[in-house]
UniProtKB/TrEMBL annotation:
Residues binding substrate, per UniProt: 117, 303-304
GO function terms (MF aspect): glycerol-3-phosphate dehydrogenase (NAD+) activity; NAD binding; protein homodimerization activity
Active site: 238
Residues covered by the Glycerol-3-phosphate dehydrogenase NAD-dependent C-terminal domain: 227-371
One annotated Gene Ontology cellular component of this protein: cytosol
Designated name of the protein: Glycerol-3-phosphate dehydrogenase [NAD(+)]
Span of domain Glycerol-3-phosphate dehydrogenase NAD-dependent N-terminal: 13-167
Catalytic activity: sn-glycerol 3-phosphate + NAD(+) = dihydroxyacetone phosphate + NADH + H(+)
Primary enzyme class: oxidoreductase
Keyword flag NAD: yes
């Protein structure tokens, strides 16, 4: 396809979909960057649904002043309608509903980044959230995941993250003024079924350079990679392992037992990726922030760990803790465990994942925490 060599006239408009703890934090750091890079991005960042008139999210991110260019938009459709970069950031249980609402109301050439940790399972198919978003909306969507505690980042305490993005061939602009015409491949390495609309030449390209400028802050170091499978699945499956670590600690064991569970959990995570996405998985991804770093932080200081520990200490179900202690927030580990196990059972391979299976049993009250070591006896 022939393209103009003129410099882009349009700038990207960015919308963040989801205004919870992490969505609001990401909107803040992205808004700092859109202001810093006026050549690439419009300054205002739309966020939907709502933050209050004091420019603070009193429910999900209290006491953090948001930059004035984070614009709360009560209408989801209005927030996304002419945004060329969509950042998805809400508990994964709600993504189906949100995609159904915005389908047909976004720019066909929009590009997405999913900050969501989870998977979707339909019958015996497991899908990455970014894959699900891309297929439902007919766009390309990458994934951001890392060892990231929203409140710390909102307070500008340094951490790292990983963004996986495979710039589609139709968006790769060569020096001789042509777009790449190779087929776009999906997360499984297959030729994609989506008929992608290229990012128009009037806009700056959406590639690793632009996304790095959009997300990287002095307190938020971004690594760009291309392994969307590894980044997405490491972020989703570590929540199952975090539940196991909370149960272990609530039961009275300590760091040595937790590191055993982390190691076993990482082995099951890597095995899962290799078993179901062998074409595209890259083992080095597990050494990124989205890999081991997220495993460690999630099993020692995040919500899935904290509240499963509380459940074990109090001897009550995790569902009850989620209902009574989380102020409307979701423990992603509960539904991810259910979804992953239903997929593994449908495939007849659940026994190859003893830790994931045990976590489901503990959540359902059919397996006792004290029996975890028995799973690994030779
Ligand atoms: N909070 C954190 O530190 C981090 C979270 N993540 C991931 O980011 C994603 C979002 O997490 P959080 O922001 O913490 O979630 P949260 O629990 O704070 O989010 C609540 C959000 O869900 C929305 N919501 C509630 N009920 C809804 C419904 N019925 N329909 C549609 N939307 C509804 C709310 O408007 C709000 O935007 C998750 O996948 C999580 O694993 C990733 C890294 C860090
Ligand atoms: O993903 C996270 C840490 O990287 C946050 O995990 P929680 O949802 O368990 O708080």
């Amino acid at each position: 396809m022939a393209v103009s060599t003129e410099s882009p006239r349009q700038r990207h408009k960015v919308a963040v979909i989801g205004s919870g703890n992490w969505g609001t934090t990401v909107a803040k750091l992205v808004a700092e960057n859109t202001k810093a890079h006026p050549d690439l991005f419009e300054e205002d960042v739309q966020i939907s649904p709502v933050i209050n008139t004091y420019h603070e999210n009193v429910k999900y991110l209290p006491k953090i002043a948001l930059p004035p260019n984070v614009v709360a938009n009560p209408s989801l459709l209005d927030a996304v309608k002419d945004s060329s970069i969509l950042i998805f950031n809400l508990p994964h249980e709600f993504i189906g509903n949100v995609c159904r609402q915005i389908k047909g109301h976004i720019l066909p050439s929009a590009r997405g980044i999913s900050c969501i940790k989870g998977v979707t399972v339909t019958e015996d198919k497991v899908e990455l959230i970014c894959e699900y978003i891309g297929e439902t909306l007919g766009i390309y969507c990458g994934a951001l995941s890392g060892a990231n505690i929203a409140n710390e980042i909102a307070n500008e305490l340094w951490c790292e993250t990983t963004i996986a993005y495979n710039t589609p061939p139709c968006d790769r602009r060569s020096e001789n003024g042509t777009n790449g015409d190779a087929a776009h491949r999906d997360a499984r390495g297959q030729v994609s079924k989506i008929d992608l609309v290229p990012v128009p030449q009037e806009y700056p390209p959406v590639d690793h350079t632009a996304l790095h400028k959009l997300f990287d802050r002095p307190y938020f170091t971004v690594s760009m990679v291309s392994d969307v499978v590894g980044v997405s699945l490491a972020g989703a499956l570590k929540n199952i392992v975090a539940l196991a670590c909370g149960f272990i600690e609530g039961h009275g064991w300590n760091m040595t037992a937790k590191t055993a569970v982390m190691r076993r959990g990482m082995l099951e995570t890597i095995h899962f990726c290799q078993e179901f996405f062998p074409e595209t998985i890259q083992e080095m991804t597990f050494w990124e922030s989205a890999g081991w770093s997220d495993m460690i932080v999630s099993c020692t200081s995040a919500r899935n760990w904290r509240y499963s520990k509380m459940a074990a200490e109090r001897g009550v179900s995790l569902y009850e803790i989620e209902r009574t202690e989380l102020n409307g927030q979701k423990l992603q580990g509960i539904s991810t465990t259910k979804e992953v196990m239903s997929f593994l059972k449908a495939r007849g391979v659940a026994d190859k994942y003893p830790l994931f299976k045990a976590v489901e049993g503990i959540v359902d009250g059919t397996f006792e925490v004290k029996n975890i070591p028995v799973l690994f006896r030779q």
